[in-house]
Amino acid sequence: MNRKGFTLIELLVVIAIIGILSSVVLASLNTARSKGSDAAVKAQIGQLSAQAAIFYDTDHGGVTNTYSGLCTDSQFLKLLNAATTTAGANGWCKAVDANNWAAMSPLKSSNTSYWCIDGTGYVGAGPATSSSTCI
Asked: CA-CA distances (angstroms) from residue 109 to 26, 97, 105?
């Protein structure tokens, strides 16, 4: 007898192969999403430097050229919150003194990796706590 079509075993093998390939693709996609989120956090943290410069040059109650109050500035916090929302965790900002500041956000890919920026111009990996500046 000449029958056309596939056997049940052949169909199950094809379905299993497709399932394995799709799981590999989805795992790679999650890694790419995580790296994309990390790049967004780094870009958003990098924008804090420009906002800090604007804050420094603005007259705050007759006091210019100071970073005091930077961490409560609405525009600065908006940028920092955008980075921490992308990361899905809390960051911090610290006005070290009237002349220096630091801000940090965790990266999406790791709970122990942070991206930091400070008033000295440093942008890069940073500490996990607000007890010190980035460098």
From this structure: 16, 32, 12
pTM for the structure as a whole: 0.73
**SS3 per-residue string spanning the chain:** CCCCCCCHHHHHHHHHHHHHHHHHHHHHHHHHHHHHHHHHHHHHHHHHHHHHHHHHHCCECCECCCCCCHHHCHHHHHHHHHHHHHHCCCCEEEEEECCEEEEEEECCCCCCCEEEEECCCCEEECCCCCCCCCC
| C-beta separation of 86 from 115 below 8 A | no
| pLDDT tens for the 135 residues of the chain, in order | 677 888 999 999 999 999 999 998 888 888 888 889 899 999 999 899 899 888 888 877 677 777 888 888 889 999 999 888 888 888 888 887 778 888 988 888 876 788 989 888 888 887 766 555 575
